[in-house]
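Many introductory courses stop at the sequence. We go one step further.
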Amino acid sequence: MATAMLIDLSKCTGCRSCQVACKAWNDLPGEVTICLGCYDNPPDLSPSTWNRIAFYELERDNGRVAWLFRPVRCLHCTEASCVEVCPTGAAAHRGDAVVIDPEWCIGCGYCEAACPFDVPRLGEGAEKASARKCWFCADRVTDGLQPACASACPTGAIEFGDRNALVAKGQDRVAVLKQRGLDEANLYGDKLLGGLGQMYVLTDTPSVFDLPEAPKVATRNQVGSWLSGILTAGVVAAVPFWLLSVSYTHLRAH
């Protein structure tokens, strides 16, 4: 049974319970932030923030202003660009989740550059050689538990379970929202990139929520061009020979 997450943005109140739960379960440190005159806090993902609430203020045709929220984190693509471009195999599918193994990650930044959703972030300090992102609480899921964010959501906006059932539920919810006058409501991610592991019920077009309408998966040809650029720049001299061998073997195997 394929599992997935469905986030109904019509039910999200921006309470940040999911954001706090992610920090707590994954033992991620807090960050010092400043007020930027908007609801976003922190303003972006980081190596120690794998889930954050984005805030959007939208003026409707009737003149009313809508406050919209979106939990921003890895969407766990079936056709995952980070997996395709990773030269060491650190980024890989683990069940229905896409995870990055810090033991194999070299901090090359290819996943960060390739992700159509701008999710992975390179580590800092002692973990600067490792890309970081949401890993779907794979440890909890393996033990039969919900991801921490889903368990903490007080409004039922976040659900985790059988993917087919969640797709059907998302489609039903979109139909209800359209009946309520939200003509642009849609289910985002049920078919994109082979099917996303995290889907959204959107109350408006994807662009309103800073989501690409038609994301594309990166190819290994792009990896080749990036590696060529590194060679041209002479940076490869700083990369151990054994690492290049591992990268080449991994690419040939795929």
